[in-house]
Amino acid sequence: MIHSLFLINASGDIFLEKHWKSVVSRSVCDYFFEAQERATEPENVPPVIPTPHHYLISVLRHRIYFVAVIQSEVPPLFVIEFLHRVVDTFQDYFGVCTEAAIKDNVVVVYELLEEMLDNGFPLATESNILKELIKPPTILRTMVNTITGSTNVGEQLPTGQLSVVPWRRTGVKYTNNEAYFDVVEEIDAIIDKSGSTITAEIQGVIDACVKLTGMPDLTLSFMNPRLLDDVSFHPCVRFKRWEAERILSFIPPDGNFRLLSYHVSSQNLVAIPVYIKHNITFREGSSQGRFDLTLGPKQTMGKAVESVLVSSQLPRGVLNANLNPSQGTYTFDPVTKMLSWDVGKINPQKLPSLKGTMSLQAGASKPDENPTINIQLKIQQMAISGLKVNRLDMYGEKYKPFKGIKYMTKAGKFQVRT
Amino acid sequence: MDVGFSSLRSEAVGAMRTALVSAENLQLTLKTELSQEEQALTHTKSSPKETHKTGNEDLKEMLESNKDSLKLEAMKRVVGLIAKGKNASELFPAVVKNVASKNIELKKLVYVYLVRYAEEQQDLALLSISTFQRALKDPNQFIRGSALRVLSSIRVPIIVPIMMLAIKEAAADLSPYVRKTSAHAIQKLYSMDPDQKEQLIEVIEKLLKDKSTLVAGSVVMAFEEVCPDRIDLIHKNYRKLCNLLVDVEEWGQVVIISMLTRYARTQFTSPWKEGAMFDENNEKAFYDSDSEEKKDQTEAQPYIMDPDHRLLLRNTKPLLQSRNTAVVMSVAQLYWHLAPKHEVNIVTKSLVRLLRSHREVQYIVLQNIATMSIQRKGMFEPFMKSFYVRSTDATHIKTLKLEILTNLANEANISTILREFQTYVKSQDKAFAAATIQAIGRCATNISEVTDTCLNGLVLLLSNRDETVVAESVVVIKKLLQTQPTQHSEIIKHMAKLFDNITVSMARASILWLMGEYCERVPKIAPDVLRKMAKTFTAEEDIVKLQTVNLAAKLYLTNSKQTKLLTQYILNLGKYDQSYDIRDRTRFIRQLIVPNEKSGALNKYARRILLAPKPAPVLESAFKDRDRYQLGTLSHSLNTKAAGYLELSDWPAVAPDQSVRNVEVIEPVQEWAPLVGKTKKPKSDKFYSDDEEEKEEERSKSSGSEDSSSSSSSSSSDESGSESEEESSEESDKTSSDSGKSSSGSEKSSSESEPEQKKKKKMTKAPQKKSKPTAAFSDSDENGNGPVAQASSSSAESSSDSETDSEDDSDSDSHATQQKKKRDVKSKPKVEVKSKVEVSLLDLDDFSPAPTNAPKSLVVSSSLLSDLEGLSLSNISSTMQVTTPSFGPVKTYELLHHMTGKGLSAKYHFSRQPCLYQPSMVAVQVILTNSSDHSLEEIHIGDRSPASLNIHCFNTIERLEPEASVTVSMGIDFSDSTQAANFQLCTKEDQFSVSIQPAVGELLMPSTMTEQDFSKEQGKLLGMNETSATITMATANTSSQAISKQVLCAANVGVVSSSANNFHRFAGRTVSSRALVLVSLELKESSTALLTINTEKSVMASMLLRDLKQALAQA
């Protein structure tokens, strides 16, 4: 399946290679570089590139290309999904997945890659098992290791792989037993220039952080499970139980994991938390353009809208922007033409606005499209779909755990066309 | 000198290293910094080659020291070298010594090194073999496993026999982990020495029988690599693999599913036998996806699905919920290639969900959806909005979405799609804008109603500032004009005018071709264009030159008087052109058109050759023929056959012997989790008992319909076995046995009506009875009532659409008990449903989301509405508001005639009031009259289609006395389409299907605005959004009052006061999407008028135009 893996940074250097079968020369990446050159943006590099003897399947994350070399037919999603899993694992281990972090931990990276794939076929990708095999580097452990000469590699051999619940390591012990769940919902929307919603959907996830001793068996129920239209589960969730009772029943992995991701049924109208009044105009023949943007809260159920970030790709003809924000700061990159405005919190009494002029290239004709505005925001303590967790019960263990649920709403791909 | 220097240098470095070593011995933590520093030192001072050598010397020293920490440090640096792709092979002897180290991390790093370099240093690698051989006998399973893993990864041909032996031994190991490793080792050995194939197949055969979920994925992978054609090995394991599938790790699932897809295509007959029929009511099948309907269709056909086929489909379905996108995709392709057409739709939602994932995942999924959407529009149409393009999407994602939107376009949604396309055309990403124009062209050819609109829009784009947009438009217009060449001389003239400004050669060539092809329609312009071309001929691109020659030739034939000299001139230029293509063409054309003695017969036909009517090009999707590849594969993604691609075979005409899959021994399935595990055992029991049943049935040579019922029964009994709620269903049966009995009685009455069917049931009685004890094992013996419910429900399911006979009703209860025994073998999907209902007492509305949703969305939407109105202030002047109509004509339509309605008659009219329930609904008043002699009870609205139709129903009318009538109002969301709303009007006894077809004018609501606003808005809605026609009005209608009356009668619009006498304006908005609809009527002499409609909804515009034309024409 997967023959080799090359990691390539933004400037086109191969800074790590790993082969699971016989060695493939790194010159195979020349085909990748060729495709990269042809693509105008880093994102435009096609994920699947055929070469005379191999196929290159790549993913781009954290400005690093992970290029897998394939020799024969394999479902491309198989490889893509695996590569993303690799990135997730790195992130899990090192906190960030950057070139520097990978170079610093090259031995751990190698040990991980060795365990994750055998002969190109995934072997252990579950983070609980991997952590049993290879301990993640922490500052403390690195220090202890250098002093005592002990190692990162787990002393005992992994038992998780053999158990009936392969995602959970055995013999977990905590003094404080706690289980926290974050319900995070994202609104994807396209708003047209008159302010009406063209399309809007809510996607949500429940991320869990479970630190419980032993083998707890949890059930999580919702007040309104019918909101969930389409769901995908962590393998620990018992699907049959969900089908029958709409209850999440599972033996959780230890630590952080994504329990569930869901899509809220499209019949429900989506509440759009903010509105934008915009007036972006370019006049024919003049080298000035007007820019006027005002944000306001809409259906927020009384909660504050925070961490608002507005960004927009201005037309190529715009040379500079001279704007005046009523709050927050804005930046305009004259090279990429990216305008971003860090608004912060929206105060309903005093609506934030960004006004001013844009200077255009002299003599250039007026751009035919107005820019699209992308918005990011956060609303704490609310799931916009109205999803509510009813209760969480634990079976199988005697102690009483701390339980906590947090709700949050974010803007996902939220675009306003102007 | 040099030598002295370098030796000095190495001495210095050596000294430093000794210092380092001693520091290391003192266990100082400074070491890493030191080594970096030292590296920097050597880097700056010596040549890279030397560094390497000395660097490696140093490592060698460290590796040979007797301290583990030093060795480990050295190995870490070696791994660093390997990771960077630097050569560290010369350290091999030093490294390999450490293979037997006690330190686990050190050992692992040595393994990494060994696997990397063993191929290059084969002799030395052999030194390590004995260590592994020893480890293979270790009592610890993990040590055995990892030893085999490394041993098999060392690609040294000499050790093939050792590996073979190790694999064989490991395949029989007690530990599933070791067996899994041996499955991996099979592939490694095979790739090194394909001659071992036969022996390896034996091992695979053995491992395929393994019951561990850990092994399943790996061994199937080995099977796929080594002997994918040996499907005979799968037969016996097929059912086991299906049953284990859910518990196999995710990567194994992908491999198993794709293997089973191929397997199923060779073993089962096509479930698409009546494919043609399904394709026709594609839409219908989509909307009526309830199980009832499905059963009917399968019943109607002689096709019987093999229970094993069904087993596969059923067991893969839960995997659609996997978090692994590859698993979801592989299930989707399995359903696409194996499931009956009407069942494929269940994968839609999951595929759309994947679009939320990473960019690369989107890319692959969109490619597959693009292929699917060509064949099955209905599958993705409800999710059209998920394919709208965002400005932040990567270009290849954008073009794929565009492709899908184009595939999905049909008469109903084209106006929405075109409006979306209009936004895309203006995109800054010009490659994408060009692709959008292509897409508009495809929509225009596919949907004849919008061809003109599209053409107008494209012509407007010709004055775009961007060259690529213009060029693309020209090319697309050329293709469109070719499909309908009539009446378009205007456009050709327009393009001729633009010709001077267009510089893209493809566009110029296209215009020239158009001129030539339709030169008779533009007799004055074509020669002039040719004159211009003659001037610039030498400076043009080849493709333009060729078309110039063509144009010259065509003009010469049609209009030689004017163009003879020009043609000669151009042909002369072409004769001496640099390109041989052009010289060739010129020579050919000259011989063809200019008569001379040599040219002979061909000359006569020149006109017929050059001006032959040409077939219009078909604008097709690039994904049209992709379906020859299995979906989800690399080959599909690249649209070429990738190495190692395994062809998906066609369905066999006759299914091969299905008994090959029977297994004698009942294999207990490995338990996965307590809850599921409990139900597993019964499943396998039942499953095999079904088989026996089936064999017996085969023997009894039962008829087609019988077979179908039995097959459905066996498959569904499986289903119930595998469901974990079985337990609860039993309980519920027990507790609510009474209610179960009574309800089942009534249910049964409707089902068990055809006497024929009863007879058949009796015929099959004997064999079914035999299998009863096993099949019904968990339910029937617990209490007597369970089977009653089962029996009735299964028959209800199997013949649910059979006509109900009232006589049967009466004695159905007695039948119930008689038939209990006959049919209790039958499945009990209904029981399942009941159990669901039972459970859902906790959350009833879970299973009937539609009605409970309505009030909620109402609240949200009204607030949304007000918000929207608040917002729109910035853009649209405040004077424009939706008002209630001043004129309300009542045209009543018949909904249900009292003859067909068994006394109930219904009439409806559009009240033209804003709907109270939801602003996007059209208010409809329904007058219900009881013209029978008995009172009707419980009049309400039943099923509706399409299922997504949003209706606000009136409250159930408890009782309607004879001769009484009642008026109720309801709201229907037509979503701005004239598609009829079909629903059922139910009384207590009967249900009648009725439909409300709105006239387009009723989908509007009036809007008032000033004349200025009107013209301002009209100015925004030109081009594609404008439709106009000259109409002739009846003489009675020429007065302004009469016009208003007629227009308002036909459409629910508001009058806009007008200053000019010969101008009439009306404004309205569509109810659902609130798109502005502007109607203007300009009176001309002698009762003709120019009627113009401006709206974004182009389809509505053309329909409204037609209606108004009709209304104004009649007196």
TrEMBL record, chain A:
Chief site of localization: Golgi
Keyword Phosphoprotein set for record: no
GO CC terms in record: clathrin adaptor complex; cytoplasmic vesicle membrane; Golgi apparatus
Location(s) in or outside the cell: Golgi apparatus; Cytoplasmic vesicle membrane
Biological-process GO terms, alphabetical: intracellular protein transport; vesicle-mediated transport
Membrane topology: Peripheral membrane protein
Listed Gene3D superfamilies: 3.30.450.60, Mu homology domain, subdomain B
Keywords: Cytoplasmic vesicle, Golgi apparatus, Membrane, Protein transport, Transport
Residue ranges constituting the MHD domain according to the UniProt record: 176-417
Domain of life according to the entry: Eukaryota
Family the entry assigns: Belongs to the adaptor complexes medium subunit family.
Protein name: AP-3 complex subunit mu-2
